[in-house]
Structures are given as C-alpha cells and as structure tokens.
Amino acid sequence: MSVLKIRRIPIALRLFLTVLLTALVISTVSLWVLHWNMQRNFTKYVANVEMQKLDHVIHNLAGVYGVYHDWGNAIQAQILQIEGQAGPEDYDRLSRWWLRRQYDIALQQRYFEEHTLMNVAPTLAEPDPQKRQASQEELKWLEMNLPSEYRPFEGLKFPLSAQQNTTRVNQGSAQNPRPNQPQSDGKKQFISMPDRLGLSSRLALYDAKRQFVVGEPAEGQMSYRPILMNNQVVGYLGLKPVLDQDDALSINFFSEQKRYLLLIYGLSFIASLLVAWLLATYFKKPIQRLLNGTRELTKGNYQHQVKVNRNDELGDLSTELNHLAVILDQHETSRRQWVADTSHELKTPLAVLQAQIEAMQDGIRKATPDHLAAMMHQVNSLKKLTQDLSDLAQAEAMQLKCYFSSIDPWQVIEQEIESFKPKFEQAQLDLTVSGEGTQLQLDIDRFKQIMLNLLSNSIRYTEAGGQVHIHTSQSPTEWTVYVDDSPFGLSDEQLARLGERFYRVDDSRTRATGGTGLGLALSVKIAKALGGELSFAHSPLGGLRCKLSFPKIKS
What we know:
Mean pLDDT is 79; it is low at 123-127, 166-182 and 508-514. The chain has helices spanning 11-51, 55-68, 71-79, 90-120, 136-144, 248-298, 313-361, 369-396, 409-426, 444-461, 492-497, 507-512, 519-529, and strands at 203-207, 212-215, 223-229, 232-239, 405-407, 430-434, 440-442, 467-474, 478-485, 533-538, 544-551. The chain contains 13 helices and eleven strands. β8 and β9 (478-485) form a beta hairpin. Among the domains are: 49-201, no CATH class; 402-551, Histidine kinase-like ATPase, C-terminal domain (Heat Shock Protein 90). The protein is rod-shaped, with a radius of gyration of 56 Å. By secondary structure, the protein is an alpha+beta fold.
C-alpha cells in the first residue's frame, strides 16, 4: 500500500500567496465596482450638469404654460399665429420643431443678456477670452430681433418650403452677428445661434404625469428637470444622455477609461507582488532562525541562542526558546552530575563488599558471623541507596505514588519518636517533645519517611550531650512541626545547600553512620508532593532547624 506524499509548502510561500491573492481580489472587485458605477452613473451625472444650462428654457416654458395652461394648446395656438395657408405636413413638422425653437429662443436671449452685461459692467461678467464683445450697433440689432417664447415661429409664412429649416435658418456664426435690414413687414428676423453643447437634438417635453408631449423621446436613461409654476409641477424637461453605449464617442470614452483602469490594475498587481514578497521575506528570516535554533537543540547543543530582535509573537517565541535552551542545559548538567554522584556513591559500598568477598575467597578472612554481618551492612546500604535514588527520581519526575487519607500527624510523630528513643539515648541526646495534632490529608507512609529522615539527621549531626527539641505550631490554615537541634551548627553557605542531592555537611560522619546524602533532598521532594513544604534555618539551640508545614483540610 503506497502512501501519498503531501507536497510541502513553506510558510513564506503561503504568506506570499495569501497577501498577493488578497490584494488582487480587493483590487479586482474595487476596479470592477468602479467601472460598473461609472457606466451606470457617469452619463446621468453629465446630463445633470448639462441640465443646469437649460434654466432659461425651463423659465420660458413655465411662462408659456401659465398663458395656455396646456402644452398641446400652447403648441397649437403658436402654430396658428403663422400667416398663410398651411400645407398637409406643416403642422406635424412645426409640432416636432416647437421645443427646438424654444431652445433657440432661450439661447439667443441668453447671448443677448451676456453681451449686454459685458458692455454695461465688464467686471461682473465671466471672463472668456473666446467671446468677442458685441458693439452697441450689434446689440441694438439683436434687441430689435430678440424673439419671444410666446411667438416662436414669428417671421414664418405658410406654406413652408422644403429647404426651410425653422431651427437653423441662418447658419452664420452668432459670434459675429451682422446687422441686416429689418423685414419690410416689421417682423423679427430669426438669428441662428450655435448649439455648442448639442442639447437641442436631445430635448423632450413631458407633462406633469411624465407623459411624452414633444421632442426627442428616449427609451433608456433620461434626466429630468421639473417645470414649476407657482411652486407646482406642470411638466418636465427631459434630456437624453450624451454618452450612449452605442454611440461612437461614448464607446471611445469608455475605452479610454478601461485602459486607465487596466493600467491601475497592472500597477496594483506589481505593488501587491512587491509588498507580498517583502512581507514574506520579513517573516521568513526570523522563522528560519527559530527553525535552526530548534535543530540545534535536537542535536544537544543547549548553549545555542536564537537572535530575533522583534517586539511581537516571533520575538516572544525566540525568548521562550532561548529560555528553554537554558533549562535544558541546566537539566543536562544536573543529569550528568546525578550520574556522576550516583556512580560515586555506589562505588564505595560495592568496593568494600567486593574486597570482603575476595578476602574470603583467598582464605584471608573467614565467614564468621561478624564478617557476614559487615557484608550484610554493606548490602543494606546499597539497598537503601537504590531505594532513595528511585524515590527521588520519581519525585523529580512528579511520578511519586501517594495514597492520601485523613490522619493526625502528631500521633504519627509520637510513634516514630517512641521507636527512636533508644537511638537518642545511645547518642546521649536530650529529647524534648511538645505539640498538638490536627486532621490533615497525607500519605502516612511518606510522612513517616520524612520524619525518619529528619530524626536520623538530628541524631547523626548533633554532638553527644546535645539537645533535640520537637514541637508544633498552627494557624487557621496551616499546621507546622519544628525539629531543632544543638551544634554542630551550619554556616550560611552550608545551610543554602541543604536539600541538594548527595550533599553532606560532614562526609566522614555521614558515611560512618550509614547516611547516603539523599535523605534531606528526598524529604524536600516528598513534602512538595504531599502539598507541603520543608525548609531549613538556623536553630535557636545553635544547630539546624527543620520546618515542615502542611495546609489544613478546608471544612
């Protein structure tokens, strides 16, 4: 059965692709929304801007409606003002041209007002270098022929000729209008004004219900401006957008916008690529250093330090990794010292035992009861040493088995003291005992083990004729037993090292009395495993004070 190999993807590549794809998605969506919004709203915006140029037309149309009160009546009545006999198609043609003629009238009126303002108050007029200031003669002629929105077809006669263009009779430029002779009948002449914005071919008139009346209807989008009379809507002037999806100029305009958008998209892609690469590199270097540091730890190089100067999670990880390396180095040093100390402690009783056995084999010594007892003593020393080592190892690994129950520790202490009285008498020590008990959750065997080590230590290191004082104290939350003895006393340096493995204040004395140098160290670990604490201090009697404390049972 073959196992599929999953392709490994470095975190730097993952980060690079994530940042790049995120930036591309954001750019793509943003530009698409921008393009869609431009196509949807820009034409309407342009039409709304152009509608501002139609204020004069709307004002005139409101005045016309105020006279006739109906758009159809207004158009029909103004056509009937023309003299002569109308042809079959004249009424239809003039109805279609009516709105354009209103636009031309408004354009001519606006031109006259602008040039009048330029001549009267040049500082109030908008500066336009392309506009030529009209002369007084030209203004007078313009005023004579200024059309009225109420007589849009003035000067026309039926029948209309096929060549007659009612919206552009005179194609001469209004930038330089020439005074002509007025018509013999006193009618006003039509003066053609250039429609630079091209609005006339895109206008349409609607009634108050937005029903088409006249002009250029549009099936699609349309901009509307209300026609108001006495603050009441009487109609709408519509303007077809100049930008159309089917119009050549519109297509060219949107093509230009697409090119700009594509250029922006390309620049965004390059910028995203650069930023993603820089960001991936920025995170790859410290991660690589952390990886190399971890590899060094797996090789056993616990003195290796990772240098990542960052104030973020990677910096914190580097600090913790360096701290872990220090701890591992300390543990490795401790392990080697443990092995060395254990080997040293096992050598002595094994060497003695070996020498005794070899002496018996060579016939130098006989297997007398005394010699066998000495050998058994060495065996018991080895057994105790190995047991203490086992318990200490379990305690340091937090695997020491404890069976808790409710006991009175003072009763246990009294029992142990009773069994130790012959040893105190043999060592010529004065024992004083005073205390009171309480109920604690302890392992009775482990507690006995601690007390045995403390009592044995007092006997071992107290001079003959000395004193040992065992007493208790307690608070609402804690119970404490003290073991005080008289000299030998300890220096501050010696006191600080108590509880270390194989540490002996007096090595010769400890070996002579059968000590292993593990009793106090083991007692400290056991006390901690039981939830208590064992500490050491100078005794008021001049020797050592051992303080063993346990928390009380919460009621």
